[in-house]
Design goal:
Elements: H1 2-7, H2 10-19, H3 31-42, H4 64-69, E1 74-75, E2 78-79, H5 84-101, E3 107-109, E4 112-113, H6 120-133, H7 135-147, H8 155-158, H9 166-188, E5 209-214, E6 217-222
């Protein structure tokens, strides 16, 4: 944690504060959660991985396809996952979209739906789990929990239905670590989490962006 705080220069602070503008008053996301994700993913830029790779890379270890859907460039001419301003904004938008996926019952893959969670703090755990493992995996775990008579809106019950694979264990550990880090950042970081905006009624789209459909796929693009 102290190592990460040393790397949190004024430029880093500015990038993270700007990115956190994508969060709203109906979620438990804030700049300290973003700091926690940044620390867990790339150790504040110390482990960026390889440019142009399809897998997770850059400051927030986003998959190439996900990064493009969040509106940033990943191709041979440039990979904005390695630009902190662009990648932090993309990560925040992705967290925002995931949070909305779990605010109410939402279709995330085929006929698979999430189960809506009204409590923002509880929903944050599902959002972080989905950031690491995908909304599909979390929705499937919710469904299995429900079928087994458990509460699909409680992470402590749903996480047990992720399975015993290496990835399932990673997801559970990821949520615990980021929550722990974000709590520490809230005490030690020089960034002050500002009061958040009220979301537009019925909207699940970050400010300054809109959804389009191309070949049956929903893509988030920047407003012109």
């Amino acid at each position: 944690m102290d190592q990460w705080l040393e790397r949190e220069t004024p430029d880093v602070q500015r990038a993270l504060k700007n990115a956190a503008e994508h969060f709203d008053s109906d979620d438990a996301l804030d700049v300290h959660v973003l700091e926690g994700v940044y620390g867990q993913e790339s150790r504040f830029g110390q482990n960026l991985r390889r440019r142009e790779m399809k897998g997770a890379a850059g400051h927030f270890h986003m998959e190439a396809e996900t990064a493009r859907e969040m509106g940033i460039t990943v191709n041979k001419s440039g990979d904005q996952r390695f630009d902190l301003d662009e990648s932090s904004g993309a990560a925040a938008r992705y967290l925002n979209v995931l949070d909305h996926n779990f605010r109410k019952d939402s279709t995330v893959f085929g006929n698979l739906k999430t189960t809506g969670i009204s409590n923002p703090d509880e929903r944050l755990k599902f959002t972080l789990g989905a950031y690491n493992g995908g909304a599909k995996a979390i929705a499937e775990a919710q469904q299995r929990a429900l079928e087994d008579g458990k509460n699909p809106t409680k992470w402590d019950e749903v996480k047990n239905y992720l399975g015993d694979s290496k990835k399932a264990k990673e997801i559970r550990g990821y949520v615990e670590k980021v929550l722990k880090y974000s709590k520490e950042f809230s005490k030690k970081s020089k960034i002050i989490a500002k009061r958040k905006r009220k979301p537009k009624k019925g909207s699940n789209t970050p400010i300054g962006w809109h959804w389009i459909t191309i070949h049956g796929r929903h893509i988030l693009v920047r407003d012109k």
